[in-house]
Structure formats: structure tokens, C-alpha cells
Amino acid sequence: MVLPKEGGNPVAEVFPDAVKGSCPVVDRLGRAIVRFCRGEDVAFDRRVALFDGLPPFQQRVLREEMRVPRGRVTSYGALARMLGKPDASRAVGSALGRNPFPLIVPCHRAVRTDGGLGGFQGGIEMKRALLEMEGVRFSGSGRVLERFFAR
Description:
The protein has 151 residues and is an all-alpha fold. It has six helices and two strands. The chain has a domain at 46-148: Arc Repressor Mutant, subunit A. Helix content is 36%, strand content 3%. The longest helix has 14 residues, at 24-37. It starts with 9 loop residues before the first helix and ends in an 18-residue tail after the last helix.
């Protein structure tokens, strides 16, 4: 692997034939992610999240998770029940764990039934930081307070 020189243009150094360009869809998505990371309430253009190549169950899980509003959480078990699969909370967690569109599909908003954070691709610290940025609060033991669960 070729590493770029410090202070140089890493793209040009690694890919000298690259042509500078732009894609309006990616540019808008990038700006939305920056606003989200600044703590703004952002409605991502979800048309960029193409589910076509994903298994049908995962598509259903991701679509349901997209309905959880900012500042709220749901549980893996509640998602399973919403999908008509009450015994599939682990499968829901696995489907969210393979979410190819984090932030756009806010899988950080799914937690354990007891308010524990469960897992997250970016690590538990990042999951908690994202939830706190959205206004979700935690008990002294680190569990999401019940009032933040979506109804």
C-alpha cells in the first residue's frame, strides 16, 4: 500500500491519474452528514440507501428502523414484534449490525429491551455519543432512560 506524504494531496499521490470531479448526490449527502455531526436534525435523502442487494429480512429491518425518530430509541425485540417475528430480536440485531448505511439508517437508535446499548459497528462509545447528540439521556448505570423509548 502506498501512503501519501505528510501535507500532500493524498488522493493525487495514491491515484495520480484521478480526475477531480463532483457528484451532486454525494455532495448533498456529505453536507448532510456534516450537519448531522454538528448536532442538527437532518432528514437524509434516503433514496441513496439502495437496499436491492440486501436480503429481504434485512431490508424490512432497516426500513422499520428508519421510522424511529431522532431523540428516541426502540429495542431489538420491539422491532422484531413490529415485523411480525417476535422471537427474532437477535436476527434484528444481526441485520442492523450489517447496516451498509449508518446514519442514513439510524441503527444506533436500536437498543436492548432493558435500555442497555447492545452492539454497534462503530463501537459502544460512538453509539452512546450519537444518542446523546440526539438528546437521549442515560441512567447512572448507562442504560437509556425509559422516557426515550419510542411508543
